[in-house]
Design brief:
Radius of gyration: 27 Å
Distance between the termini: 5 Å
Helix content: 10-25%
Largest sheet: 8 strands, mixed
Number of strands: 38
Strand order of the largest sheet: 8-7-12-5-4-15-18-17
Number of helices: 13
Structural class: alpha+beta
Shape: globular
Strand content: 25-35%
Amino acid sequence: MCKISISLLLKVILVLFFVPSTGLGYLCSDGTEVTDSCYERSMSPYFYVKGDPSAADSLPLLSTSTEVNIGGVIADVRVTQIYKNNGSVPIEAVYVLPASAHAAVYKMAMTIDDRVIEAIIMEKEEAGRSYKAAKKEGRTASLLEEKRPNVFQMNVANILPDDIIKVELHYTELIVPTDGVYEFVYPTVVGPRYSNQGRTDTDAWVSNPYLKNGAAQPYAFDIITNISAGMDIKEITSPSHKVDITYLSPSKASISLKREDLTNSGTDRFNPMMPGHDKDSLTNHIKDHPHMNVKKRVASDDNQGGERDYILKYRLADGRIESGLMLYEGDENNGEENFFLMMIQPPKRIKPEDIPPREYIFVMDVSGSMHGYPINISKKLLKDMISCLRPVDKFNLLLFAGDSTLMSERSVQGNGGNIQTALSAIERQKGRGGTELLHALKQAMNIPMDEGISRSIVIITDGYVHVETEAFEYIRTHLNHSNVYAFGIGTAVNRFLIEGLARAGQGESFVITKQEEALAVSNTFREYISSPILTGIEVDFDDFITYDIEPSGIPDVLAERPILIFGKWRGAPEGNITITGVSGSENYRRTFTVHNGMAMDTHSGLPYLWARKRIEILADYNRLKPDGEIKKAITSIGLSYNLLTPYTSFIAEDKVKRNNAGQSITVRQPLPLPKHVSQFAVSGEPGLYLIFILGSIIYLCRLLYSRGLCRYRGMKVVI
């Protein structure tokens, strides 16, 4: 007979607890490099565990600093990344970074020693070949590629030991107010993406490693925002970070992070974009502040600013917004075009006295990434929505993770009994399993629909999937007279998916980062769906000669935000622009005189914004029906306007051969998990796995005991 200690059994169970189940994630624990061999195991993200020191630096990203300059409604953003090789061998650093889904990336530069190398835009395949050639030849190079409109990948080849490489990228985007509130969002981390598909080169980024939950963010993060509103600013707030606000005038302000939200901040703040903060000062700063060394960095507290979206909101005095006509006049001698942007504030919402019966299909994500904080917010949001249904309304509830559970084959009346059944089902959810969003959408769209009733599909998720384009295409082709509303839940949601679902479904998108926001957003949602603000919108340009207008048609306006019209113009800026539509039961009409339009230096971003909007529209069509001509059109716009697109990339190459051996180790920078995102998002379902193992052990012991093959003695099982 042998004696098995209960404590030994527990140790075995704990070991098994931390081994992820097949296909749900993997633990890479070599502590050196995260190589492509890890990709062969699974497309799901996996944990990265730092082990013993090795020849290769596994955390090359030293810092990310961002400077945002907002002029009127246009934000110009400069992102500076510092890479440092603390190892003893040359490396290639690969870093997956987030971006705004509306960002027009128009410039990139790389600095080595005192040499500044401007990146050029090239077709994606050609840029990839040039980068590989530079890497093989031992020349330092950086490559920026778009993986999704809101996910980029930066590769920096041949970073030599003790090298400090600075890479800057510039982008611009439009800030559109809603209900008089301007909101700028800077995503700081790419959340893990669930995938049940095999590896492809295009989607290899999905398997980027993640640090274990609670691990210190391995790089410094800082952001400074400067606002020049053109009108008096009433208030500035940040619901995501603690900030210091300095008013330079009634219409200008500078916003910076408080020290506790500066990840790994030292006695002095280092910003590589500030005067005097060059390579030498950075080198000295690292020596003076050991926390800047990636081998020694630790987080000072739980306020790691780079693991949640940076959100800044501001209002103008008297609730005003900047609306009207903005003009950009290009240099004809250099073949430049003229661009305009029209922002029109719609009328105030008119609430009809009688709202017709409606049907709501609530589609709730209950997967592993929603475990804990996100699912608690989702529960509160859904309870608020469902509890306010009228008896004449119908509704249904679909819960999805690896599979889907539908409350009823057909939608039911919004009475007390049905509402209580739904609320009980919602309350039981914990957040487990994969994220089969596409299957859930198909099931929701196929629910039988009654005649004469308006259906709204409400999707609640963090968006951590990589089937965005497939979801958009399915919604567009199966909309069936429904509107789709998408709610993003969490501190770093996949905004590309959330906004794209709403755009494809002709609805609205919402993002909730805190539980206390749920009720207000729920109320706003009910206002949106009760009645559109403006319908039947038409635009007449009179004698103002325009072309390449985006969008080609303006849908109903549901939210209190401006109507946006991009385009080009030729000839003299003269004539009128007239907007007409129907607001409630009244006709709406507004006219603008073109020569009163503002032509300012801050409008130099209009060509990039127009091009980005055109690419967005073309890409939507291309996802719906892939077309080689559309791909060529997107590529042409990217090359013509110097923009990052799905088919164009930025590459900066040093001409100096620095790595004579030509050999290097590829290091994939592990990312921190977004704040409040559970390890279940990347490590499968250890809880269920533990239950299975524990249950098997108990069953085995009971079987042996029943057959007289073992007996209990104190805290030991004797077999």
